[in-house]
Amino acid sequence: MKSVIIIPARLASTRLPGKLLLKQTGKSVLQHTYQSALSSKKADRVIVAADDAVIVEEVESFGGNVMMTDPEHVCGTDRVAEAAGALEGYEIIVNVQGDEPEISAEAIDLAISLLEQNVDVPMATLSTPIRSRKMLEAPSCVKVVVDLQGRAVYFSRSVIPCPRKWNDELLNSEPATFFQHVGLYAYRREFLLEIPRLPIPLMEKIESLEQLRVLANGQAILVGQIDHPITGIDTPEDYAAFVRRHAS
Fold it and tell me: Domain of 174: which CATH number?
């Protein structure tokens, strides 16, 4: 199956203005992400879906593929869907966030493999064990519960499953008890194009989690497991840590 990675890139950022264009390492955050995506062995192409001419100019400056999309899109999924609609010949579309410069090829390829091996499922994503109670209880850490077939049951900002009685050993169990959702998605192209038209359920509005729309509309999401979370850049502290890792 032919696959393409689409990186939705929005110029505006609330907590770290212009973060995709930061270049303290000598390359922009967006260029790092693009080049990491290129290391995928399964993806046939990488393209940036931009919302601003400044993003287009940046991608062209490092020789990347870029497409201008509607600046009014309210979420990355809609931006990726617009780009995917203009691309023919790709069966699997992978959504890689532009602010994840350390995305691994293995993570991308796992998400693609899940759809290649399960032709009846329209979407796949990833998870990683949670070993910290602070992380477990943080609303910014989205949790996921899966069934025995590895399909998502629910995503939440709350603790799921919620222990009736707490025991610290729950954080050290093997297999793990709690899983963080990793925001990398692979879709079948036809299904991705349908997502913006699906009814938005109350639980999506309450949790502010787009993936709940898929579950609420009766579609399955396969969830693969990776050992470590993908570190995104949301704050000045995140970027400073990335710069330190890149310099070491």
Answer: 3.90.550.10
Residue 127 sits at the vertex; the CA angle it makes with 30 and 91, to the nearest 5 degrees, is 65
- Which ranges of 27-94 would DSSP assign to H, the alpha helix? 29-38, 53-61, 76-85
**174 in a domain, yes or no?**
yes
Judge contact between 58 and 77, C-beta under 8 A. no
List the one residue out of 203, 209, 169, 158 whose CA is nearest residue 185: 209
Note whether 28 and 13 are within 8 A (CB): no
Angle at 193 between CA 66 and CA 181, to 5 degrees: 80
Determine, yes or no, domain membership for 248.
Answer: no
Encode pLDDT of 164-204 as tens digits: 999 999 999 999 999 999 999 999 999 999 999 999 999 99
Task: Count Cβ neighbours within 10 Å for each residue of 41-79 and write b for 16 or more, e otherwise.
Answer: ebbebbbbbbbbeebbebbeeeebebbebeeebeebbbb
Q: Which two tokens stand for residue 1?
A: 């199956």
With residues binned 3-state (H G I as helix, E B as strand, rest as coil), the percentages for the chain, rounded to 5, are 35, 20, 45
Residue 21 belongs to a domain: yes
Residues whose CB is less than 8 angstroms from the CB of residue 141 and which lie 6 or more positions away in sequence, other chains included: 130, 135, 157, 180
Q: Which domain holds residue 85?
A: 3-243
The first and second tokens of residue 41, run together, are: 């062995």
Residues 6+ apart with CB under 8 A from 110: 126, 224, 226
**Structure tokens that stand for 140 in this block:** 């910014």
| Tens of pLDDT, residues 130-168 | 999 999 999 999 999 999 999 999 999 999 999 999 999
